[in-house]
Amino acid sequence: MDRLPVAISVIVRQFQKNRGTINELLEQYIDPVDGDYLMKEEKDEILPQIQRKIELEEGKKYRYSESEDPALIVNPEGHEDWFEEWLKTNNTETKRYYWKNLENFLEKKLTEKVSSKKAGEVIGSIDNASNKVVERLENPSRPSFNTKGLVIGHVQSGKTANFTAVIAKAVDAGYRFIIVLAGLHNNLRSQTQLRLDSELTGEPFSADVEHVDIPLLAGRQWVRLTDERDFTDSTTLRLETLAQSGRPILVVMKKKPQIMRKLIKWIKKAPEDIRRTIPLLMIDDEADQASTNTGRNGKVTPTNAHIRVILRYFTKHAYVGYTATPFANLLIDMSTNSDEIGRDLYPRNFIVSLPRPDDYMGAEQIFSKGQADKYVITVPDHEAEEFDSKSETQLTMTPSLKESILSYCLSAAARYHRKHKHKPMTMLIHTTHLQDGHSDIKSIVKCFIDDLKRELKDKNAQKFYLAFKDLWLKNFLPITQELYPDRKTSFEEIQPYILEFLCDLDVLELNARSTDVLDYTQKTDIKVIAIGGNTLSRGLTLEGLMTSYFIRKSDAYDTLLQMGRWFGYREGYEDLTRVYTTKKLSGYFEDLALVEQEIREELFRYQEDEVTPAQVAVKIRAHKEMKITAPNKMGAAKTIEPTYSGKLAQTIWLPLDKPEILRKNLLISEKFIQNIKDTVSWTRNKGNHLAYNVPVELILNTLEQFEFSYQSGFDTNSIISYIRRVSTEFSRKELTVWNVAVPGQNKSKPSHNKSVQFGGLDIIPVTRSRRNTQLKIGVLTNEMDLVMDKEDKVEPHIRENPLLLIYRIWKDSTPERNKLGRLAPLFAGYEEKEDAIGLAIVFPKSRNQTEDYIAQNAESS
Q1: Confidence band of 450 (pLDDT split at 50, 70, 90)
Q2: By the 8 A CB rule, do 682 and 761 touch?
Q3: Per-residue burial over 121-131, b = 16 or more CB atoms within 10 Å of its CB, e = otherwise
Q4: What is the pLDDT of residue 677?
């Protein structure tokens, strides 16, 4: 049957080239070795495999919109584009050996969970996002390079999947030494080692774990210097010997100075001329933890120093940090260099911001207004205080903790009813970082579970089931029916599964002192209540997490976000996800959702402005109660001005693929222009129309109604917030009256587009073309537009009134001949066309700036 995989591959390729139907290709296929047709049983065997493979490949071709593409801020200086060219001659099964092995593994793994098409889309997304990172690494054949990069993901969102793919592709291209720094705790290091063994090396993690079926050919196996054990210096293998074999070397280690010193000692044994030839890729998972330099008075912290020393030993090296909370990384002082240990870890060469994946539930999805009522249940403050380490009262089962456990039982029973029994199901209880507190909580939770099982086995258990039923009808059924109208699960349908689930349930205490182990590989269908603190708050994935009881106090952005282990994918049971927390913490997470969104939008804007990472000063919204990060991680942070003082905001990305939004924006603009006409007079200057002294209320009411693309460069919410703040919150109010302009083409000049009525104004719409393959126009404003109200001609950038420009863009706009190829017609590739609206605002310099954003002082770097 060895010939069948070849047949599948050939037939899929032929089908994709429109050489015939699947059945026709099966009938026509002739084995290239023996010249025989396929037998009937062979056709029957491979037909479903061919169909799955075709669906997979179709899924991989799915074109994500620009808003789902990673944002990329790069420094082109010294970088030579190479990966795209390398792919042209090396995109084969043999030359992309490690990536193809990983891709095949992902196909098998994902098609067991989701449809083939969906699996293909996920793999295509991983492929696309990891390419963005590999493209910014240097060609390993270069004689020397020093690359520093940062990849920003979301908590529990697939960062490991990204760097696993990056490692596979980098090794295919010639990188030979891979070091993965995997947090501070044994469980995260072990989890990362196990993941990489499962998806890359094919080697067993330990004697207790079976060999993973990844077919690595002789001579292409990995050399692992770590397995279930962290790195030790007892190995007899020498780096120079391993380098001569040509096989890739993998180290997965904790960021502990005593372990890192062992690796440095081992590396130093290799001659410098050998180290000079080895391309090193270091992946730093949770790069904001321990890696950044938090030393004072010129001192460098040991972990930061050891990372820099390891890199310096290799003439060809790349360092890529991964984190979901990049606050500390973006605030690294770029001036901290040392001849002894090399340059700091600021990502000078590139920053990649990964998009929020489909089906991902993060702070925005869970805690935003309108959504929190579905997922968040408030723990009363007086109950939360009972778990405080300073409380003198004896720890007891509080009503909210009891309800959270009952909710977990109901969620699990509902999943049993949905045929999910074989999948992991987890509850998180995180009340304190103190290990003594974990032991006490485990004791009362275990007693409660034991009592509950005993009561439910009793013949008089009906009264307890009534409590479950009330909770189901109040907290679950309405939400399930709202999200899934076709699901009408009654309590009676799930009731039989409650006791069955409780009999499968374990209660574990997870901290450095406990002997309990949470290992999803040994028991893939584990049902567990995980009680812990710091061990559960960094990197560790809690599989099938459904219910969280989280009341631990924290006042730092990054610490709080990392504790949100409930963020992630909840496909098939998002309606059953619940978070029990205090009102204050819930408000913090809602605020953090805005902070995260603003940072990512900032990075998209920097990408559009084509600035380098060294010029990036990502603004991080300050909070009146929370710190951005620990004080010793604030690096070169400083308070800076709000966004729009003396600046231009304009829409560059247009919703050309959403005609309903185009029509909506057009109607809003026409109504706004007419309302101005009813309030003040319009004047005309050639093809342009101007209105002066328009009240700010009319501006704000209209801005609130517009809708633009995610990457528009025109953050409406932020702009409105800024206008409201400076026009109302200061004794010397600003932006209270506006100038408004509607640019148009001059009738005296020949034009293909005709005059139209626009809110009662007679204008010839402007023309704008867009960049190929993107929904971004080349330019919206020009220099004369920005001074058409003549205010800026007196003294550049000093205005009395802000200027709002409303552009009506002709739907049939095409680029000039000499720009074809670089630019495209406005609606190229789209069947439905509407005139588009673009907005620009020229803001005056503010006299009332409030310092409410924190950023790296990039200008001084």
Answers
A1: very high
A2: yes
A3: bbbbbbbbbbb
A4: 85
How much is the CA Rg of the chain, to the nearest whole Å?
A: 30
pTM comes to 0.71
CA distances 295 to 104, 377, 559, Å, are 45, 41, 19
Token pair for 317: 């090296």
Token pair for residue 285? Answer: 């998972």
Looking at residue 534, the DSSP 8-state letter turns out to be G
> What contacts 220, CB < 8 A, 6 or more positions away?
97, 247
Share of the chain above pLDDT 70, in %: 86
**Spatial distance between the Cα atoms of 47 and 29, rounded to a whole number of angstroms:** 13
Is the separation of the CB atoms in 168 and 132 below 8 Å?
Answer: no
Q: How far is CA 539 from CA 126, 146, 257, 303, 563, in A?
A: 19, 27, 19, 18, 9
Res 266 pLDDT > 50: yes
Asked whether residue 613 carries a pLDDT value surpassing 60, the answer given is yes
Which region among 48-52, 388-392, 573-577 has the lowest average model confidence (pLDDT)? 388-392
Dihedral, CA atoms, 381, 382, 383, 389, nearest 10 degrees?
A: 100
How far is Cα 512 from Cα 439, in angstroms, rounded to an integer?
12
Pairwise CA distance, residues 430 & 566, whole Å: 11
Count CB atoms within 10 A of the CB of residue 639.
Answer: 11
Confirm if 307 and 319 have CB atoms less than 8 A apart. Answer: yes
Task: Give the containing element (helix H, strand E) for 282.
Answer: strand 280-285
Contact 255, 186 (CB under 8 A): no
Three-state secondary structure of 400-438: HHHHHHHHHHHHHHHHHHCCCCCCCEEEEEECCCCHHHH
Give me 549's structure tokens.
């009881």
For residue 624, how many other CB atoms are within 10 A of its CB?
A: 6
Q: In whole angstroms, how far apart are CA 491 and each of 458, 483, 794?
A: 19, 17, 74
Please report the pLDDT score of residue 850 as a whole number: 44
Q: Are strands 737-742 and 688-695 parallel, antiparallel or unpaired?
A: antiparallel
> Who's near 654: CB < 8 A, 6+ residues apart?
662, 708, 709, 712, 770, 775, 776, 777, 809, 836, 838
- For residues 555 and 545, what is the distance between their CA atoms, to the nearest angstrom? 24
**What is d(CA 442, CA 462) in angstroms, rounded to the nearest whole number?**
27
Distance CA 574, CA 586 (A): 18
| DSSP 3-state of 63 | coil
Q: What is the DSSP string of 628-671?
A: SS-GGG-TTEEEE--S-TT-EEE--B--TT-HHHHHHHHHHHHH
Beta strands 249-253 and 316-323 are unpaired
Rounded distance between C-alpha atoms, residue 96 and residue 707, angstroms: 43
Instruction: Name the pLDDT band for 521 (thresholds 50, 70, 90).
Output: low
Going by the DSSP 8-state scheme, the letter that residue 370 receives in this structure is: T
Alpha-carbon dihedral angle through residues 665, 671, 674, 680, given to the nearest 10 degrees: -90
Tokens describing residue 353: 């911001």
Q: Which amino acid is at 387?
A: F
Nearest to 657 by CA among 467, 834, 444: 834
* DSSP per-residue letters across 207-246: TTSPPP---PPTT---EES-SSS---TT----HHHHHHHT
- Whose tokens are 């909370």? That residue is 325
Q: How far apart are CA 622 and CA 612, in angstroms?
A: 24
According to DSSP, the β-strands at 505-510 and 376-378 are unpaired
Lowest-confidence range among 316-330, 472-486, 635-649? 635-649
How many angstroms separate the CA atoms of 795 and 778, rounded? 28
Report CA torsion sign: 382, 386, 388, 389: positive
| Residue 400 reports pLDDT greater than 70 | yes
